[in-house]
Amino acid sequence: MPGKTLNVGLIGYQFMGRAHSNAYRQVGRYFDLPVVVRMKTICGRHEGAVREAAEKLGWEGYATDWRQVIDDPEIDIVDVSTPGDSHCEISIAAAKAGKAVFCEKPLANTLAEAEQMAAAVREAGVPNAIFHNYRKSPAVALAKQLIDEGRLGMIHHVRAVYLQDWIADPNFPLVWRLQKEKAGSGAHGDINAHIIDLARFLVGEFAEVSGMMHTFVKQRPLAGVADGGLGASAQPQMGEVTVDDAAAFLARFKNGAIGTFEATRFAVGRKNHNRIEVNGSKGSLVFNQERMNELEFFDNSEGAQTAGFRVIQATEGVHPYAGRFWPPGHIIGYEHTFIDLIADAITAMSEGKSISPNFEDGLQNQRVLDAVERSAESRSWVSL
Question: 221's torsion region: left (phi>0), alpha (psi -120 to 50) or beta?
């Protein structure tokens, strides 16, 4: 595909829309891609806001109906960065139109929708990707290499938490992420999905789970104008919170490992504490997104005199992705994980290979999310 241009249509322009826009704008400046990425159209329901987003984020044009984007014969990639209630409809329509489909996580609001979406891209034979961007941190990619090389030996434990505090204030408004009909679930689908994906990426598939879910604040002020991030203005009227505020579960993996997982948006003082620890017979490793350039590694073969966790600064050119950006020691940030994901996806497309992560990964993650929800309802173990 040398010299070919890939035209992108992005549906959504808030938090994730901005992150994706930055990635499309920057990817060709850091990666030697076999194609040119053209930011053709951004789409949103409110014309004034989406026009402003197009100008600010670098898009050539805008639309107010996602069907216009899909119907545009020049569009090659449809990026779905909307709330979960529209992922299924837009993704299936894009696949049927022969477009590559990139979608935000979680893949869908329900397992049934995720199955339909995975089937649609499979039947259409179109490239597809899901934005589990944490896989693309150099430290996580290095962790994957060490595990695949056998440096941890037989895996015994996976210990993962994703802790935030942005809705701990009971006066925080009822944004769409707190409404089941729009988001599907709360902390469970929003952030548990990420650590589920990291565990699958690093360790393997889940066998069974036992979970619980809880909502601490049952009612909140209705949301007014969105602030472009996670929040919005608050109105005097109150509305019901219909999703979980926190979720936790135990897991057994098909390879014999066991795991514990916790996701909450009520951990006061924690902003984006996405941490996963893997313990094996030969060693252990730890990744924490709030220190994302570091990977902690323990080599159990060392003698007692020098044994201990070492901190690897994953900023050397030898580390995955790191050499694309700055000299060693000059750290990268959250936004670079999206750039890495887009670069991998476009390179895979150009080579006729499957993108990773893709809708099949999203479907497997959704099966775990669904099993945890069913377990929480039945208060019993659920097999996958």
Answer: beta
Question: Can you read off the two tokens belonging to residue 382?
Answer: 């659920």
What distance in Å separates the CA atoms of residue 11 and residue 72, rounded to the nearest whole number?
A: 13
Give the dihedral of Cα atoms 201, 177, 162, 258; nearest 10 deg. -50
> pLDDT digit string (tens) for 51-105?
999 999 999 999 999 999 999 999 999 999 999 999 999 999 999 999 999 999 9
Q: Choose among 8, 2, 32, 4: nearest CA to 22.
A: 8
Angle between helices 359-378 and 111-124 (to 10 degrees): 160
Beta strands 35-43; 4-11: pairing state = parallel
> Domain holding 238: CATH number?
3.30.360.10
Which string of DSSP letters, residue by residue, matches 197-248? HHHHHHT--EEEEEEEEE-S--EEEEEEEE-SSS-EEEEEEEEE--S-SEEE
For residues 126 and 185, membership in a common domain is answered with: no
